[in-house]
Structure formats: structure tokens, C-alpha cells
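INFO batch 0412 | record 1 of 1 | parsing
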Amino acid sequence: MVDIASHQGPVPLPSVSGRQEISLKYLQQLAFLLCRRGLLVSVKGMNGGYSLTRNKEEITLLEILSSLEGDLGFSQDLPANENVFQRCLRVNFYEVADKRLRALLAGTTLSDLVDSVAPSSYEYDI
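INFO prediction complete | emitting C-alpha cells
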């Protein structure tokens, strides 16, 4: 997503694969999920590839990671026979960690990541 957001127009996955040294097959699986969730759109044709469906300032890491991984929480469903130690750990650690992680991811946009990457780390091979 950072690579795609760093380029103008549709970005071919083979280009992303080469730049990021990630398997093309794996990227195709990720792109499929991100398209299904409405974060990417596939553009067909000679100058085709993948584009963001919204501005990079509007897409949060929470949206991206939730689209790929589902629920990101540490806490689990409340067990029927939760003991005092388990309750203490759940309430004082897992639920707090969940809230902080969600806040961090929801407050970080794709633009934040793109802006933090040095421009020289991307080659424009269009």
C-alpha cells in the first residue's frame, strides 16, 4: 500500500514485487483482499495496475491491517469460567493493549507512512 500510494496512477504489481522484493503471487493475494475491502481498485489495460480508492490521507492502518488480518485484538472472548487472575490480566493488560493498538492504528494514515519514507528509496520505473 505504501508503494502504491507513493506513485501516481495505477501501479503494476510486478513493479511493486521487484521494488519491495515480495513474491508476486503473495502480492496478488493481498491485492485481491484489499480490492474486496474497497481500499484498492484494479485498472485493466496497457497502463493498468492498482490504485488507491481514496486519498492516502483518508486510509488508516487500522483499515488496511483489519482488511488483511481480521480482528487485531489481543483479548479473547470472555471465558465462562474466568478466574481472578485471568480477569485481572484481561482487564488490566489485554483490553488496555487492544485500545491503545486500535488508537495508534486508527490515528496513523497511509500518508503518514508515505511521508516518513525517504523519496530515494523508491525507483520510478514508469
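INFO post-check: The two ends are 17 Å apart (CA to CA).
INFO record closed
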